Amino acid sequence: MIMTGLGVSFLLVCFFIISLFLYMLRSRNIHIWFSAYVLHLLKRKIQIEATPIYIFFCVVDHFEPRWNHATYEQECQRVDIWVKQYPIMALNHRDSRGRPYQHTFFYPEEEYRTEHLDKLARIHKNGFGDVEIHLHHNNDTSQNLRETLIRFKTILHDTHGLLHKNRDTGNVEYGFIHGNWALDNSRPDGKWCGVNDELIILRETGCYADFTYPSAPDVTQTQKINSIYYATDDPQQPKSHNTGIDVEVNRPPSGDLMIIQGILTLNWRTRKWGIFPRIENSELSGDNPPVSSRVDLWIQQHIHVSGQPKWIFVKLHTHGAQEENCNMLLGEPMNKMLSYLETTYNDGIHYKLYYVTARELYGLIKAAEKGENKEPDQILEQMYADGGNIHS
Question: Which stretches are transmembrane (predicted)?
Fold first, then answer.
């Protein structure tokens, strides 16, 4: 009877733990990507025989000065603190080439102000980063979306000297982050987008790649994680980027749009209630500041172009206009993290570190896809010589 009682108690405990685990998966939408996470764990341990390993480090910023219904004075303060303090911080951190840390501001179309973009353009022209396109929209139409993107990219290029023209086509190109994570109408309730053919429209209006994801724990998170891939749009269905074909060395481009994802995994070093791992979703925030253990975890995920395992792409995201995040990004937490990155992953023998913008990250991905045998330094120098042009 004692053994039977212990057996029943054990089964009850197991049932409780399993039920709690399943609840956690559902409550944080981990069930969307959990199978891909398990598969990624099995696949990521690729043997890299030659060194050094190249680390390409990129931070993309959902930069929203009007966040939380800010007054005009608050908007200006949020932009000005970046203009004044960011270059000073960036100059204290250098990569393997001696280049300062880089930051890419994805600026919302619906928050456009000439004076804000003029200031961010100075950061770009002084060599500390770049500006790309961010967009929040709701209940939109394909035609209006197309007109909005064309109008905004033209303003950024013609008025502020931002973005780049494709040398072959003459078209202005841009990187993109979707507001509220709802790329291609990916929310189940249909909010914050409304356009099922968004990937096609992005491609046709000059978008070179999307940098929205990961979005976990949001419900918009894709099934595919820790990947650089091409998504093909089904204009009759939402969330066509849920799956796709990995970018691969010597494989021709495919689909409608390249999706460049950041890191998404479970962090078993920090656990809720001491049991369940927390989600590592590449976010830099006041509530989730960068620390050395996160740096190691980012690099361990080994996001790369299939067939080029020596090149590791680390893409993080933030909302840098929010005060609590700004203080972290321009203060001691970010400084300590970058110093650890430079000390641990930039010895020139085992690792070489590159601080890159979103567009440069894309250019390196395209070079890997084409099977370029050049060193990253040469590839980036060629991009600069071509005025930022990336050859398809």
Answer: 6-25
Phi–psi pair at 28, nearest 5 degrees: -105, 10
Which CATH number is 367's domain given?
3.20.20
Per the CB < 8 A criterion, the answer to whether 268 and 296 are in contact is no
Domain, as residue range, for 143: 26-385
Q: Is residue 21 part of a domain?
A: no
112-146 burial code (b ≥16 CB/10 A, e <16)? eeeebbebbbebbeeebbbbbbbbbbeebeeeebb
β 207-210/283-284 pair status: unpaired
CA distances to 137, 145, 193 from 196, rounded to whole Å, are 13, 11, 8
Residue 277: Cβ-neighbour burial (10 angstroms; 0-12, 13-18, 19+)? middle
Instruction: Write out the H or E segment, with its range, that includes residue 143.
Output: helix 142-160
Please answer whether residues 262 and 221 qualify as being in contact, where contact means their C-beta atoms are separated by less than 8 angstroms.
no
Report whether the peptide linkage leading into residue 214 is cis, meaning its omega lies within 30 degrees of zero.
yes
Structurally, the chain folds into a number of domains equal to: 1
Residue 13 lies in a domain: no
Rounded distance between C-alpha atoms, residue 60 and residue 313, angstroms: 13
173-230 pLDDT tens trace: 999 999 999 999 999 999 999 999 999 999 999 999 999 999 999 999 999 999 999 9
d(CA 144, CA 195): 10
Per the CB < 8 A criterion, the answer to whether 126 and 87 are in contact is: yes
CB contact at 8 A, 95 and 354: yes
pTM for this prediction: 0.92
